[in-house]
Amino acid sequence: MTIDSALLGLIAPLLPEIEARTGAGDAALGLALAAYAVPIAVLSLPLGRAADAVGRRALLVAGLLIVAIGSVLMALSDSIGILMAARAVQGVGSAASWISALALVSDTAPPGHRGEALGVALGATSAGSIAGPALGGVTAQLLSFEAPFLILCGLALALLVAALAVLPHEGARTTSAVPALPAIIRSTRSGIGAWAAAIMFGGACSLGLVEVVAPLDLNARLGLSSAAIGLLFAASIAVDAALSPLGGRWGDRRGRRSPAVTGLAVTAASVLALAVLPGVSGTAVALGIYGAGFSLMMAASVPWLDEAFPGRERGLAYGVLNLVYAAGYAIGPILGGLLLAVGDADLAYGLAAVALAVGALGLTIRSRGLAAMTRVPRKSEATPEPERCRR
User: What are phi and psi of 173, to 5 degrees?
Assistant: First the structure.
């Protein structure tokens, strides 16, 4: 999962060199970046179903192999067309390995500790978000343009070998007889499923908005450089990574509702703080608070969505998670750009804060009806492992 998240930011510091190598313009470079996300959005649900049908191990191995192939293609790319194709290949592999890895973490988590285990996995994802741009920029400068992609290929292949050696072979699985779409509707119409999907979408949307609005605002208002802005966001992500396991443990012990409401409220306060706290120190505090709130939202909503699906549809659950998050993360930047065009950064921050606060209030009002559904099961009541049949 660290590799999957590193793939997102690895290419960012290399864009100037890619522009020089390929002669591509800004629009073409944007399309090349988007090529990574398109297969994730299109294939998340089929890959989730595949994780339930063929097993986590097989899909994880296939995903890591595809990531390695895509990374080699990136290293060899000398035209924008090849680069787009390579990013798309990486996107396919990332979707497959990310879905299967999360499902595997959920499958193997001790009873009563699923949220904490998923929190650790989410923390690893955040760590990859920090490491990706650093790996890309530093190794390309010290070694060569090809170096970061070849290093990533080597890491993916090493993990592939480790997965083959450590993970046991899985027998044939008995998948749900319910088609994917009715299964998704059934699970997301439940109280916890609907709230988990809504929180995940809102969190991803707010993140996309902040990642567009804040850098432009900080540059215009404070004259901060790209490096300074990057360090501020890296600190926010570090807070997210550190708190994810703690948020998951809180949900395991006290129920998912409390960290979910707290996360929504804290994130709303942090976005408002971006508008009112002055100077670089105020921005650092606001982004640190944002990292804490976002961490709690994800640490609550990911296991919540997992628990809305039966055990043998857990792969499908993470396919839905991938799709919902990708949709929110795509819409957020668009909203941010539109709000900047018609108003200013304070307008964008204010509307985002209101939306998140309304979500926190709505979840609080619904708390009585959700109380029974958010109770963490005892060991004897834990969700059974997916049924298997012998060959």
Answer: -100, 145
Q: How many CB atoms lie within 10 A of CB 363?
A: 20
Strand partners for 173: 388
Identify the top-confidence range among 137-141, 265-269, 343-347: 265-269
pLDDT in tens, 368-382: 555 444 444 444 434
With contact defined as beta carbons under 8 Å apart, do 51 and 315 qualify? yes
Q: How confident is the model at residue 26 (pLDDT cuts 50, 70, 90)?
A: low
Q: Are 251 and 114 in contact (CB under 8 A)?
A: no
Amino acid letter, 313: E
Contact between residue 356 and residue 332 where contact means Cβ atoms under 8 Å apart: no
Per-position DSSP letters for 44-83, written without gaps between them: HHHHHHHHHHH-HHHHHHHHHHHHHHHHHHHHH--SHHHH
117-162 per-position pLDDT tens digit:
888 888 887 777 667 766 777 777 788 888 888 998 999 999 999 9
Chain CA centroid to CA 147, Å: 25
User: Taking all residues of the chain, what is their mean pLDDT, rounded to a whole number?
Assistant: 82
Strand partners, 388: 173
Assigned token pair, 321: 């998670």
Domains of the chain: 1-168 (1.20.1250.20), 180-376 (1.20.1250.20)
Residue pointed to by tokens 């105020």: 282
Residue bearing the bigger pLDDT, 385 or 152:
152
